[in-house]
Design goal:
alpha+beta; Rossmann fold; Tumour Suppressor Smad4; six-stranded mixed sheet; 7 helices; 29 strands; about 30% strand
């Protein structure tokens, strides 16, 4: 059984195709389509894993809009579709296992809260494991993330999580919220699983994106193909072509029939789920389009095929990937004779102009550090953006500052406290101009304004 998503140039599903529009081959051998239906057919339910980032940075409007978006997607699914709800922050929690009970799912989504660090890699791995045991063959994972894997709480690394996702072959619909996401990671995740990356500039964008995902799942095409004439002992490449209004688009995906080898049957319907960015080819030219899975999309108003989505991504916005400075790649500790804070990353403010900055004012003035869209971590270890010289009995203390919706927020990442804002212990705080932040024996001041060089 092969699931195919056909998208137009804007990333919207193309409806109302029939079986005659599809041609399926394996290593050049034609395979007959024995059954054809769509995602709206209750006899071919979907199993969807909803994965929510519930780290502390999601507090407030973000988590509330995420709840509304998740419930909107659940409301679009059919009565036989199954959904599981999973969250990740310091740990991963399966909030609700697979069920078609919409009331139970809405209750589970309403109950999610935002707090803690970001075990993104563990969240991806757990989502794959959950989806793999899903009760339906048509499966998808919808993941929301507003930041990078943070806090050292994941038990699997970046490469391991991506490898597990790619091996499972279950498409990820990844929704990146705000400017601080790890877009490179989400792109690798969705490309490796033949899924789709959608970017939400603000929490208010989430519901429309989730509704678009729900529509895509309902508009998928499900093809049963007769693979009885294939040798299950060798790997194959499945190729699906779709002819829409005289234009042919093709996509390919690996086909593994080895699990049928011990008990060969006269007819088998292997499960394949994939997505790809195909190359449209005018019908009758004999040229070959291509891809790496089975989704298509309309490129430039011409049909393109895809199983989880490719091309025409809503709210898509590319950001330049920045190189990691050597100071951040190499763990480092300041020497006892270092006079003050050591600034890495973009470096001290100097004469550069910035909208906001941190001043190191004690034990002595060590300069000013500009703040922008990227999170800034302050603490006593070499992986911090601002590395302070004296832990004063709190060597693991650190906090993070970043901008969201025009305001700067502080998150105390220390499990033992040790951070105050304006003289009061702080776990979370919205920073205002002039706020003094104390961590250990160090004092910093948050400033907003003209941002010129030192007076």
């Amino acid at each position: 059984q092969t699931t195919v998503t056909v998208l137009d140039g804007s990333g919207r599903p193309v409806p109302d195709l029939n079986s005659q529009a599809f041609n399926v081959t394996a290593d050049g051998k034609s395979l007959a389509v024995t059954a054809f239906t769509t995602g709206q057919d209750p006899s071919v339910p979907a199993a969807v894993v909803l994965v929510f980032d519930t780290s502390g940075s999601m507090q407030g409007t973000a988590i509330e809009q995420a709840r509304q978006a998740g419930k909107a997607l659940v409301g679009q699914l059919g009565p036989t579709d199954q959904v599981a709800v999973l969250t990740f922050s310091n740990t991963v929690q399966l909030t609700r296992d697979f069920t078609s009970d919409h009331g139970a799912l809405i209750s589970a989504i309403d109950g999610i809260q935002a707090t803690g660090d970001t075990a993104l890699y563990d969240g991806v791995g757990a989502a794959v494991g959950t989806a793999t045991r899903a009760p339906a063959q048509r499966r998808a994972i919808v993941l929301l993330s507003d930041g990078q894997d943070f806090g050292g709480v994941s038990h699997v690394d970046r490469a391991g999580s991506l490898a597990a996702a790619a091996a499972a072959g279950i498409p990820f619909f990844a929704v990146g919220l705000g400017p601080s996401i790890d877009q490179a990671y989400l792109e690798d995740l969705t490309t490796g699983t033949h899924g789709q990356l959608l970017l939400a500039p603000s929490p208010q964008s989430l519901q429309s994106l989730y509704e678009a995902i729900g529509t895509t799942l309902r508009q998928q095409y499900i093809l049963d193909v007769d693979a009885s004439g294939l040798d299950p002992a060798s790997a194959k490449t499945l190729r699906v072509e779709v002819n829409h209004a005289g234009t042919i688009t093709a996509a390919e995906a690996p086909l593994d029939l080895s699990h049928f080898a011990p008990t060969p049957a006269p007819q088998v319907t292997p499960e394949v789920t994939a997505v790809v960015t195909p190359i449209p080819t005018p019908a009758g030219t004999g040229a070959e389009g291509g891809g790496s899975a089975v989704p298509l999309a309309l490129a430039g108003g011409v049909l393109v095929l895809g199983v989880a989505g490719a091309g025409g991504v809503v709210y898509r916005r590319r950001r330049r990937r920045q190189a990691v400075p050597q100071e951040l790649r190499t763990p480092w500790r300041p020497r006892p004779d270092d006079p003050g804070a050591v600034f890495v990353g973009t470096g001290p403010l100097g004469n550069m102009r910035a909208d906001a900055w941190l001043e190191s004012v004690g034990p002595e003035n060590a300069g000013r550090f500009p703040l922008g869209e990227e999170p800034v971590t302050v603490g006593f270890t070499g992986d911090c953006t601002i590395c302070l010289p004296d832990g004063a009995g709190l060597p693991g203390a650190r906090f993070r500052v970043w901008r969201r919706e025009g305001v700067y927020m502080l998150h105390n990442l220390s499990r033992s406290g040790g951070v105050t804002v304006g003289g009061k212990p702080a776990t979370w705080a919205v920073l205002e101009d002039g706020d003094e932040i104390v961590i250990g024996a160090s004092r910093l001041r948050f400033r907003m304004g003209d941002g010129g060089g030192p007076a």
